[in-house]
Design goal:
Strands 1-2-3-4-5-6 form a 6-stranded antiparallel beta sheet, with no helix packed on it. It has 3 domains: 63 residues, Histone H3 K4-specific methyltransferase SET7/9 N-terminal domain, CATH 2.20.110.10; 36 residues, no CATH class; 47 residues, no CATH class. The relative contact order is 0.09. It is mainly beta. Helix content is 10%, strand content 38%. The protein is built from 2 helices and 11 strands. Keywords: Cell projection, Cilium, Flagellum, Repeat. It is found in: Cell projection, Cilium, Flagellum. It comes from Chlorocebus sabaeus (Green monkey). This is MORN repeat-containing protein 5.
Length: 161
């Protein structure tokens, strides 16, 4: 754990993480659930710093069935997903609270939207610096480096400050 920056609170069997556990990743994403032979296995939930969560059944470290819930309570439905698609472009908060009057368009699901630093992009889980290709969360903590595909997607689709 000292090398990865992660923290494990739970049971061990033969020196391996196994049983009920809490596993905290360096990104502050927290897994609470069952472990087997050092990996997620059985029922468990990933809690993300943004407030969203992923409840899943895990098999040897891979999610085989799960449900994603956004921080605002919106549940992702893989088969009947109609949120912000070609037919209904409203944000979830607009669905819950109604549309704003003409001329007061809502730019993001968060209203008012976050202020984006000059030259950066808001990519949904943090701000992206296209010069360094680094994404940091909204509290300025490193999340990841963007590869070429993610760089192209962010600069093409995300709001820029």
């Amino acid at each position: 754990m000292e090398y990865t920056g992660s923290k494990y609170i739970g049971e061990y069997v033969d020196g391996r993480m196994e049983g009920k556990a809490k596993y905290i990743l360096p990104t502050e994403t927290i897994y609470v659930g069952e472990m087997k032979d050092g990996v997620f296995h059985g029922e468990g939930t990933l809690y993300f710093p943004s407030g969203s969560q992923y409840d899943a059944v895990w098999e040897n470290g891979l999610a085989i069935k799960g449900t994603y819930t956004f921080a605002d309570g919106l549940h992702y439905d893989e088969k009947n997903w109609h949120y912000c698609d070609g037919y209904d472009r409203r944000f979830y908060t607009e669905i819950l609270n109604g549309l704003k009057p003409a001329g007061m368009a809502q730019l993001t699901n968060m209203d008012p939207p976050r202020k984006i630093p000059k030259g950066y992009y808001d990519c949904g889980d943090g701000f992206y610096n296209p010069i360094t290709r680094v994404i940091k969360d909204y509290r300025n903590r490193f999340l990841r480096n963007a590869d070429d595909d993610e760089h192209e997607w962010i600069t093409r689709t995300c709001r820029k400050g």
